[in-house]
Each structure stands twice: as C-alpha cells, then as structure tokens.
Structure prediction request, 457 residues.
Amino acid sequence: MCGGNLVNAKHAEINAAGVITDSRKITPGCLFIPLVGEQFDGHSFAAEAISQGAAGVLWQRDHGTPPEGPVILVENTLEALQQLSKAYLAETAVRVIGITGSNGKTTTKDIVASLLSTTFKVHKTNGNFNNHIGLPLTILSMPEDSEVIILEMGMSGRYEIELLSKLAEPETVLITNIGESHLLQLGSREEIARAKVEILAGLKPGGLFVYNGDEPLIPMVLKEPETHKPENLKIATFGMNDSNDDYPTGIMFQSGGTVFTSYSGRSETAYRLPLLGEHNVINALGAITVARHYGVTEDRIIKGLEHLELTSMRIELLEGISGVTILNDAYNASPTSVKAAIGVLEKMKGYRRKIAVLGDMLELGENEERYHVEIGQFITEDKVDLLYTFGPLGSKIAQGAASHLPDTHIHAYIDKNELIRALLQELTPKDAVLIKASRGMRLEEVARAIQIDKLQP
Prediction:
C-alpha cells in the first residue's frame, strides 16, 4: 500500500492500527511514519517508537541502517504516507468531497459535515489539517464504515491543491471564494483562482463542481485550456446574485444567528443559521447545494444547520463577565474576510457602541500597505464607532480610517498590553467589540483579556 519492502519477513503478520507521525503521540499498535523537515527528522525517534509499542515504522532508504524491529523500507516517507492514504481510500466505498477557497473553507466544511451527518456516517478534516501531510492523516484516521469523507484542501502556492485532489479523487468539489490570501506567494487574484481550481485535477468523471457564482475569476479559469476538467463535469453555483442556482431571497440578522430564505428552483425555504454575517449565509448556501446533491431532505438540512458545531475562533460570539459582547474572529484575516466581519458588526443592533479591534493582515505581498489603508477607508461612522489597531500594518488601517472617522475615535498600538489596558479603560457592558487579525498577531489574547477582566464602570 505504501510502496515499500518489509525488512524481515517474520514481521509480516503484525497488524497495525492507526498512523502516527508525531513521536510524542505514539499509541500501542500504531504505524509510525517518520517525516523529514527543515528543522526535524522523525527517523531519530523510530527506535524509541518501537520500544513504546508501535507495531512498526517506515524508514527512508537514504537514512542508513534502520532500527531493529518491524520496519518497512521506502524511498520517501512523505510520499509513502500519501500513497498509503490513497490506497486506503481505494479499499473503501466512501464518497469523497473536497472543499477549498480563500476564506470560509473550514466553516463550509463544518456546515457540509453537519448537514450530511443527518443522513450519513461522516468523517471530516479535523481543524485545519488540510495540507500534504494533514490530508493523508485525515484519510488514515477515517473509520472503515464511513460513508462520506469531507476533506478541506489548503495551499500556499501552485500545484499543492492539485496534489491533494489527485490523492483524494473526490466526486464532489466546492470552492467558497477567491480572496487575497497568499498574494505574497502567487502575486495576483487570477493566479490564486488558478491555484484553487486545481481542485478539479482529481475530480472523478461526471463529478460535481460547486462554486461561488459571484466570482467571475472561476469561470474565467475554467475556460482556460490549461485547466483540467473531467469528462461530463456537472456544475452548480451559489451566491448573492439571482443568476446563481441557489441564492438568498431574504436575510434577517438576529442575536447570535441569522435567518435566511433561499430558492433553488424548488420552493422557497427558511433556515436558521447559528452564525453571524452575510458571508456565512453564502457559505451555508454552498453547503446546502452539496447536501441536496446527496439527497438530504429539507427537514434534515434545517436540523443540520440548527445543530452546527464549528471550529473555534471563527466569529465566536462571547460574553465578557462585565457584559461586553465580543466577536472573536482572530483565527485569520484577509481584506475580504475583514470587510465581512465589519459587516457583521455593522448589523448588530441594540448596542451602545460598536468597536473594531483590527490587527495586521499577513502574506498580502508587495501591496500589503495599500490593502490595509483600503480597509481603513472602508470603515465609516455608520459601521464602527471606535477603531483600535494593532501592529505596524494595523497603523495603516488607522491611517485610512482618518478619512471617515474623527481622530479621537482612532487609536493605533504597537504594544499589545497597552492596547488591552486602553480597551479595559474604555469598554462598557453595552459595547460590542469585533476582534480580527491574522493568526500570527495572536489577538485572541485581547479577546480573552476583555472577556475575563472586570471593565471600568
């Protein structure tokens, strides 16, 4: 299954249960696969893994003499891991769904899983295990009786999603949107679109391609002769525009959630989504399109949305001990997702003030300062009452916001502790606070501080 050779035939009858690549997480009977990185080499822990009860280990041929015990020699341990996952998928009858996009892919994956779980036994990517290592591990952790596996596919450059798609060979794929993430690596939104559409590379003939029809770059890339398209490709679109196969006919924002209606060529149906924001309605429509394709009934779709469980730090609605409302969206940030989060804050009703705490958006390439200034210019008094920024690029947001907000309503910080102290002095129990930045800025520390600390009266 992994293209290797057993060193000693006496170990041929050993059964392995589970695959581990982290030597700190060895479980009895597992197969340990030592990976090689720039700062580490798992082969150093292979002998220890066997002594701790691993059923066996893979060993890369160019690493010298393997340890004593059950060892399989392979040319490359990473490629062996990937080949092993592909072989396991081929042995099962599981139906594979692949999801990618610049923003919203993890949320959409969680929604698809919730909807399909009302009808099927579903396995999905844990957290954001969505790269060339995480995706094979997700597959190999799948219970044998799974009926559907939902695989999130991430990337930082070209041809990475192509690899993942060819490993998984999905029968359905979904692209949430094309944003600005990875502009640093790819240089343009057009090139980002080409990287995302690589998800078609492994799509089975007759497979379904679901995408956000409001994004013109996707059909543009589809028309390019270099783009791989499987035979008998089926297409379904979703989005805000009524030109899509599915679109919202009404949206109403409530405390802690959103009610929306949609029409997809059948009758109009009302759904309640325990998420905030128009962008999450769009994510839900993509997921609903997939669920309908798999025959999930409308009543089960409604139930699946109501019982949705999400990966943390994606617009979590938190209450501070002093009553302040916190919108914690500190997991990641791009211009598209920041504007969406500000839109959520803007539509929140019944609060004394709406306060945005925004940090640096990373990996935006040579135009990063311009993107931050544009976010500031997007912020008007009807959207945000007070703006706090963090980081050197965050100061560019403050600079852009000066075109619409009074100087007294804009506060820029480089020191996170000073930012926290200023917020604790300013906030009141009737305020709503949005916290948004790239993961590297660790603004969840700000969310935690204002959630647990007592505010000034």
Residues 5-75 form a domain with the Udp-n-acetylmuramoylalanyl-d-glutamate--2,6- Diaminopimelate Ligase; Chain: A, domain 1 fold (CATH 3.40.1390.10).
